[in-house]
Design brief:
Blueprint: E1 2-7, H1 10-18, E2 22-25, H2 29-41, E3 45-51, H3 52-55, H4 59-67, E4 73-77, H5 90-99
Parallel strand pairs: 1-2, 1-3, 3-4
């Protein structure tokens, strides 16, 4: 099973590549949509990582992927654009919203 990252900055892409995760750097909505479509064509892809800034450009597509029971599993990650105090409980909220358990 493969992992793929769609990022808006080269630093995230390089860091994940060092961990063995392939990825692409994009900036515009159309580029994000194209990257997601290409990633969905890969039947071996199990996890799609996307930076939150890019996920906010295509929320309807991300919601559709998250709500479907098929692969890939979509994981939004905070990016360098996040302010320190802006969203301290991001992971906790994500778990609560996803599976309904307060951690």
């Amino acid at each position: 099973m493969k992992i793929f990252c769609i990022s808006d900055n080269i630093d995230t892409n390089i860091g994940l590549r060092l961990a063995g995760v392939d990825g692409i750097v994009v900036h515009e909505r159309e580029e994000v949509l194209k990257a997601i479509e290409e990633a969905r064509k890969d039947k071996e892809l199990g996890i799609l990582i996307i930076t939150r800034k890019l996920a906010q450009l295509v929320p309807e597509v991300i919601d559709e992927l998250k709500l479907s029971a098929s692969l890939p599993l979509v994981v939004e990650i905070p990016d360098r654009h996040l302010k320190k105090d802006e969203d301290n409980d991001y992971i906790t909220r994500y778990v609560r919203d996803s599976i309904g358990i307060k951690v």
